[in-house]
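Entry for the shared binder. Reason: the reviewer on the internal report wants the predicted structure included alongside the sequence.
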Amino acid sequence: MRRSAGRLFLRRGWGVILSFGLFLCVIMGLGILRFHAARMAYYLDSLDLSIQRLSNEEAALKQEISALAAPIKIYSYCKEQLGMQKLAEAETLPVHLREARVARKKDAPQEKEGWRMRLAWLFGE
């Protein structure tokens, strides 16, 4: 009986040591996971800050572009820098299609006339 009691004690001792080692491995694994989660949170925060910074920069650039493309800005630039002047009366020159046909080559295909010419884009012609 003494012999079996000694073996039981050894088994309990090894069991306690193994369970303690397993407990330490689980605690270390959880610590590693916590460290990895903290690293990922830091990475996501840095990405969020860079996205915020870039969106603020984009908004500022859009505002600058809209200010540069304003009609009054273009008008003042043309007047001051290029020396253009506003015309009191604009002239138009009529262009007749019949005169344009005279200048065309003889072997070139003729354009369609009338309603077919206006609707040619519908028929893919």
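Summary line for the report: The chain has a mean pLDDT of 80.
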